[in-house]
Amino acid sequence: MFPLTQVVRYYKPPRIVFGVNAVDNLGKYAREMGLAGRTAIITDAGVAKAGIPARVVQALQKSGIEAAIFDQGRPEPDDAACDQAAEFVRREGADFVIGLGGGSAIDIAKVAAQLAVVGGRTEDHLRKTSFPRKGIPLIAVPTTAGTGAECTMFAIITLPREGIKGFFFTPFIIPDLAVVDPTLTLTMPPGVTASSGADALAHAIETMMARKENPLTDALAFKAVELIAEALLVAVYDGSNLEARVKMSYASMMAGLAFNDTGIIEGHALAHALGSFYHIPHGVACAIALPFAMEYNMGHCLEKLARMAAVLGQHTSGMSTRQAALAAIHAVRQLLADAGLPTDWSRWGRKEDIPALAEMMVKSPWITAFYGYAKRPMSEEAAAELLRRSYEGRIGEGPY
Ligand SMILES: [Fe+2]
Fold first, then answer.
1. Each residue of 359-393: pLDDT tens digit?
2. How far is the CA of 147 from the centre of ligand 1 (A)?
3. Centroid of ligand 1 to alpha carbon of 349 (angstroms)
4. Domain boundary among 185, 212, 233
5. Which DSSP letter does residue 78 get?
6. How far does residue 267's CA lie from ligand 1's centre (Å)?
7. What pairs with residue 139 in β-bridges?
8. CA distances in angstroms from 100 to 4, 26, 55, 56, listed in the order given
9. 17 in Cβ contact with 23 (< 8 Å)
10. How many degrees, rounded to 5, is the angle at CA 313 between CA 283 and CA 391?
């Protein structure tokens, strides 16, 4: 049950355009915002190879907007990638920035759009998780369905010297416009479709278990779970199915809108610890962590998990609330496994690493920040148990 006396802030992009082929009118939408002149498109080589930036450039040209393309974005970006992109934005004299790609390209664009105005290095600002003021306008155009980065005030940036993923967390980096066009996700390969879909599912479910759960974000998150249950496997195994791509793009965006206000919790704490330690891609780490995070939280949200079981297509009549809640956890794990995702992290690491990982999970401020959004506190013992169960793939034993 949501806390009745809390204050929740709802921060969204002021404009969102969603639809099939919407990107072909990007110039028009930019003009409507008063944007003109020259833009820098921040993307990566994979997106460029798929021909997507050329489509965007054409859409901008129709409205008389010039574009320069930076295609050096990379997955799980570090501070150097952001500095490089910011330098490009300054050098090109861009009036605004477009982040075009998966969460990584959009996150780089979020940082570059600020640095273009405030100056300095990414690392200096990252230590404060914010910027002194807002930068130039930012448009986000996702080419994956998962991170919800087009709607959020987060950007995940790795600090390579510390071997950990840091993050920006500030309303300054919420895109001024999000253009979500599911046709841009049609070329996503099955593995990326699966892992990014798992990320969206984790955002939705962790939001519902977070301390600031509330009716508005619940509505978004429940619908996101329903859409993912309907469409994830179709999108993975028949990537050209536009209906499945539309559903996944909606789910990703809605989950992003939801978690922006509540934050995300232990699943992402575990995923970031595993990602920092073993460089497991974010969505894959989320897929591993999510069922265990659900079990960790089931004590305070049995009824909600029981309702989620029905949304996930489980037949729960005749089950106790606890049985139905566990059915939801098993259904999530089965859905992700059917999408080809791993159910434990044993292939990446060793059991002997668990004490070091558990220490990271309770000592690193970049990880403990997630517990601020959670209802349950985290201890080193609980973190070690979470790690042990997720290493062994042991689920269904109840809260711990
Ligand atoms: Fe995520």
1. 999 999 999 999 999 999 999 999 999 999 999 99
2. 6
3. 21
4. 185
5. B
6. 9
7. 98, 177
8. 39, 12, 11, 9
9. no
10. 40
Q: What distance in angstroms lies between residue 381's CA and the mean position of ligand 1's atoms?
A: 24
- Identity of residue 54: A
Are 358 and 269 within 8 A, CB to CB?
Answer: no
Ligand 1 center to 200 CA (angstroms): 7
Residue 38 lies in a domain: yes
How many A from CA of 221 to the centre of ligand 1?
A: 14
Is 370 found in the same domain as 242? yes
What angle do the packed helices 380-392 and 266-278 form, to 10 degrees?
70
Q: Which residues touch 108 (CB under 8 Å, ≥6 apart)?
A: 42, 73, 77, 81, 82, 85, 99, 155
Whether residues 91 and 237 share a domain: the answer is no
Nearest alpha-carbon partner for 78 in 169, 135, 161 = 161
Q: Based on the domain organization, do 202 and 74 belong to the same domain?
A: no
Say how many Å lie between the CA of residue 33 and the centre of ligand 1.
29
Q: Residue 65 C-alpha to ligand 1 middle, in angstroms?
A: 33
Q: Which residues of 342-378 are buried (b: 16+ CB within 10 A; e: fewer)?
A: bbbbeebbeeebbeebbebbbebebbebbbebbbbeb
Residue 259 CB partners (closer than 8 Å, separation 6+): 148, 152, 203, 204, 206, 207, 210, 217, 221
Domain-located, residue 61? yes
Question: Rounded to the nearest whole angstrom, what is the distance from the C-alpha of residue 35 to the centroid of ligand 1?
Answer: 30
Are 380 and 358 in contact, with CB atoms under 8 Å apart? yes
Q: Are strands 96-101 and 38-44 parallel, antiparallel or unpaired?
A: parallel
- Gap from CA of 386 to ligand 1 centroid (Å): 18
pLDDT along the chain (400 residues), means of 10: 84 98 98 97 96 97 98 94 97 98 97 96 95 97 98 95 91 98 97 98 98 96 98 98 98 97 96 95 97 97 97 96 97 98 97 97 95 96 97 90
Would 313 be classed as within a structural domain?
yes
Structural domain includes residue 215: yes
Q: Is the Cα torsion angle 237, 240, 243, 248 positive or negative in sign?
A: positive
CATH number, domain of 290, equals 1.20.1090.10
Number of structural domains, the chain? Answer: 2
Give me ligand 1 centre to Cα 163, in Å: 18
